[in-house]
């Protein structure tokens, strides 16, 4: 039960990132790359502080940690750019649909063999996502935004796969955020041509700090802590609940009212997850 509770808490944190990013970037309170940079800085500051309080070092030059930083940067930048042009719920749907594909492929490459029930559940959940983002109806997004979120999905999927072998979740996450801070800073310099002027509002900066320090920094450290106890296919499957949570958050906090299509697709996604996570019956078992 404790693992279920911690995993659910992480999913809420993931969904909160979509709502916070959309509220800040989509509303023009801060630039997309600026949001990614502030988010990375805030996450790195909190995690490094926690590591120093426990007198732990943060080795940055380990290849696995450098790769984690690169994948986290890919996710942060693509995520922020995509939310210039899509709602919180839709963005999360595209993101975690792509994450599901990435992590199932990773599970197979790593030798994991998901049971048939999990394949069926994942298929149902992905069908729900596909129905929602299919052209037409009340959901639409420009191709460039979908591509940016697709890149974010690949980055996050690989980052999550790396976390399965984490022996030091806090240290690995802190190192990734330090690497991401440097990379996002370079991205901002390239975008602005070295200019230092920034028209971010106080609200935009506050939302980026909350996203970085709380729902990203601490949330991702907790994710790395639970990942070794989840199979890659299970980790990919449970993340498909995030779009539904984000859509509800967007409806309540951002007035992004979901239509019937989104509600029905959300129900199909959650039903697929529930089916895929049900215990597999073994031969010879019977109801008592």
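^ Assign residues to that structure.
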């Amino acid at each position: 039960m404790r693992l279920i509770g911690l995993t659910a808490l992480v999913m809420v944190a993931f969904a909160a990132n979509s709502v916070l990013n959309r509220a800040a970037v989509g509303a023009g309170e801060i630039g997309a790359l600026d949001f990614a940079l502030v988010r990375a800085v805030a996450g790195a500051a909190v995690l490094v502080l926690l590591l120093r309080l426990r007198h732990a070092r943060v080795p940055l030059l380990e290849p696995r940690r450098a790769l984690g930083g690169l994948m986290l940067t890919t996710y942060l930048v693509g995520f922020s750019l995509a939310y210039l042009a899509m709602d919180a719920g839709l963005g999360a749907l595209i993101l975690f649909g792509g994450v599901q594909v990435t992590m199932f492929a990773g599970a197979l490459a790593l030798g994991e063999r998901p049971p048939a029930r999990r394949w069926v559940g994942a298929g149902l959940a992905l069908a729900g996502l596909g129905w929602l983002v299919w052209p037409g109806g009340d959901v639409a997004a420009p191709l460039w935004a979908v591509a940016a979120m697709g890149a974010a999905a690949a980055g996050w999927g690989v980052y999550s796969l790396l976390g399965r072998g984490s022996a030091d979740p806090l240290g690995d996450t802190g190192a990734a955020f330090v690497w991401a801070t440097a990379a996002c800073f370079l991205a901002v310099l390239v975008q602005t041509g070295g200019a230092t002027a920034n028209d971010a509002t106080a609200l935009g900066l506050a939302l980026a700090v909350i996203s970085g320090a709380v729902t990203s920094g601490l949330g991702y450290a907790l994710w790395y802590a639970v990942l070794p106890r989840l199979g890659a296919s299970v980790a990919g499957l449970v993340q498909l609940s995030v779009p539904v949570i984000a859509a509800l958050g967007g409806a309540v906090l951002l007035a992004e009212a979901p239509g019937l299509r989104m509600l029905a697709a959300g129900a199909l996604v959650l039903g697929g997850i529930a089916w895929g996570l049900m215990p597999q019956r073994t031969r010879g078992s019977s109801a008592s």
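The two ends are 23 Å apart (CA to CA).
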